[in-house]
Amino acid sequence: MTAAEGVRIVVIGSTMVDMISYMPRVPDAGETLVGDHFALGFGGKGANQAVMARRLGADVWMVGCLGVDAFGDMTLENFAASGIDTTFVTRTPDVSSGVAPIWVEAGGDNRIVCVPGANACMTEDQARTAVESVAGVDVVIGQFEVPQNVTTAGFRAAKERGAITVLNPAPAAEISPDLLAVTDWLIPNEVEFAFLSKDSGISSGPTDAAVSDLAQRLGVHIVATLGEAGAAVFNGTRPVVRITPVPVEVVDTTGAGDAFVGAFSYGLAAGLSPATAARLGCACATSSVTRAGTQSSFPLAAQIGEALAWATNVP
């Protein structure tokens, strides 16, 4: 399979500048450690998902808010270099652009602190106008690093236009009923799945029964991402489908979930089945963990071709 043409995706979400420290292990309280090395990169769940979808070939519009600062300037330059439309990215002089200090341990596990900054200044009108303005939009993506009411407004406009809505409920939080009502696909990781399931009596993790139960209780389709174990897909009618990725040597897991969301959303927009779209998501996420960084780790042209081939070569 080759990348599809004419795919149009709007991402309502966050932008962050990642400040990544690599270390043998994280320090204990009150302890100082000497790290291995440091990297400054571009992140934010919304921006990451937008970049992944764009690398697959989608036309992508980013909806977000930046501060009037150097990080904001850098972020706009990065979007331009990535080929992402920033017509609907606003700037505010009142707060800083979003930042994310990240610790990465040997073995690739990470710990992340998000400081939203200007991301919290997005408005419902901004999201609604963006979705209504993009001709032929196929998929609208949202996350929890911007206010839920903003995402709700954008999703409501998407549903009115017949577009698919994909919500990544991260960081873990309760989902407003209004947002659930206009969400088609929910993509939690294992931590977020456990949080959303805490009131249902589920304690066994994302088993097939737990995935289908949560989907039916919330009234959505679900893809639970499971790290190196892949993903579990439930579309509301067929049994849960498990996707198992190819084992790789992990360098850095930062951004892998966002690579999955961006690729899965692209797959849906391109007309792939949910299971095949999830295979594409797993392939892109798996590729990303073999390299350091966030957006800098996402697959490029050669790896994209390999990911598409693996996703569509269903045994």
Automatic annotation (TrEMBL):
Gene3D superfamilies given in the database record: 3.40.1190.20
Localisation per UniProt entry: Cytoplasm
Pfam family name, one: PfkB
Lineage: superkingdom: Bacteria
Reaction(s) catalysed by this chain's protein: 2-deoxy-D-ribose + ATP = 2-deoxy-D-ribose 5-phosphate + ADP + H(+)
Keyword Phosphoprotein on entry: no
UniProt site positions, description: Important for substrate specificity: 16
Electron transport recorded as keyword: no
First-tier enzyme category under EC: transferase
Chief localisation class: cytoplasm
Enzyme Commission number: 2.7.1.229
InterPro entries cross-referenced by the UniProt entry: Carboh/pur_kinase_PfkB_CS, PfkB_dom, Ribo/fructo_kinase, Ribokinase, Ribokinase-like
Active site location: 258 (proton acceptor)
Sequence ranges assigned to domain Carbohydrate kinase PfkB in this UniProt record: 8-299
GO BP annotations, alphabetical order: D-ribose catabolic process
Annotated residues for binding of ATP: 189, 225-230, 257-258
Gene Ontology molecular function, alphabetical: ATP binding; metal ion binding; ribokinase activity
Cofactor or coenzyme needed: Mg(2+)
Binding, K(+): 252, 254, 288, 291, 293, 297
Family recorded in the similarity comment: Belongs to the carbohydrate kinase PfkB family. Deoxyribokinase subfamily. Belongs to the carbohydrate kinase pfkB family.
Subunit structure comment from the entry: Homodimer.
Protein name: Deoxyribokinase
Gene coding for it: deoK
